[in-house]
Amino acid sequence: MSSLVVNTNISAIDAYNNLNATDQAMAQSISQLSSGLQIQTAADNPAGYVVSQDLLSQSNGYQQAISNAQNGVSMIQTASGALNQISSILQTMDSLAINSANGATNSTQSLSANQQEFQALQNQIDQIANTTSFGTTHLLDGTFSGQVLQVGAFDNTNQQLVITIQAATTGALGISSASASVGSAASAAAAISAVQAAINTVASIEANVGATQNQLNAIVANLTVGQQNLQSAYSGLVDVNFAQATSKFSTEQILMQSGVSMLSQAQQEPSLVLKLLQ
User: Fold this and answer.
1) Residue 238 — very low, low, confident or very high, per pLDDT cuts 50/70/90?
2) Environment class of residue 62 by beta-carbon count within 10 Å: exposed (0-12), middle (13-18) or buried (19+)?
3) Structure confidence by residue, pLDDT tens digits, 8-56
């Protein structure tokens, strides 16, 4: 049963409450449309906020892991380039050793010349092996052993790659100046076997380095796909659907206008009592 009262205008209170709710919803829609986000703080969606932070953390971790792996590829390519140079030098040394071993046609002068060139190439190999580095990290002097690359978003051994690059100095290859020379036919004959063994050793090191590079490239490809999926999931949870939000905002605008109109009408109801007093 309805009644006309003056002190308490129930219709106006009800209209005001509805208008206040519409105003709050409209403010939220404006915030979403202006920021492009449906979850800006934990208050917007506590459970969704927790999940979004986990997704964001993992996505950022994947991005850094991709960067780590790409740096690893660059490092491996640096080592590979130096090993190629050493391999080329060894081929020249092998030719010199074979030439000097042909004692029947070599003079003392030619053997001395071959020995000088052979020793210069030995020094060049040591210079390359001892100076090849990525930043301040030496790669071919035997100190790069058991180095860890973090190629995942979590502290897990499955997301870490342990790399070791064997030394490529003349000492490690068994062709140092103390153990290999071509100054005589006899020593050159022994040097042939030593140099060819060194060629095989360097080829093996290069093969291991190349396999590591391929592994890192595969890791980068996998992480890239994973990060894309994580970003998609994060976007679906956090980013606002503009089609849906603008439609909702239009409805709220209409409700706001009608709410203001109805509140104005409700506030005039008590004035009807004056007609009863006339």
Assistant:
1) confident
2) buried
3) 778 888 888 888 888 887 877 777 787 787 878 887 789 988 998 999 8
Positive or negative, the Cα torsion across 174, 178, 183, 184?
negative
pTM above 0.85, yes or no: no
Q: Report residue 81 as tokens.
A: 């380039």
Domains of the chain by start residue, with CATH: 47-238 (1.20.1330.10)
Question: For residue 151, what pLDDT is reported?
Answer: 94
d(CA 68, CA 172): 30
The tokens of 97 are what? 């050793």
DSSP the chain: -----SS--HHHHHHHHHHHHHHHHHHHHHHHHHHSBS-SSTTT-HHHHHHHHHHHHHHHHHHHHHHHHHHHHHHHHHHHHHHHHHHHHHHHHHHHHHHHH-TTT--HHHHHHHHHHHHHHHHHHHHHHHH-EETTEESSSS---SEEEE-SSSS-GGGEEEE-----SHHHHT--TTT---SSHHHHHHHHHHHHHHHHHHHHHHHHHHHHHHHHHHHHHHHHHHHHHHHHHHHHHHB--HHHHHHHHHHHHHHHHHHHHHHHHHHTGGGGHHHHH-
pLDDT at 101 over 50: yes
Q: Which of 46-50, 180-184, 185-189, 273-277 has the lowest mean pLDDT?
A: 273-277
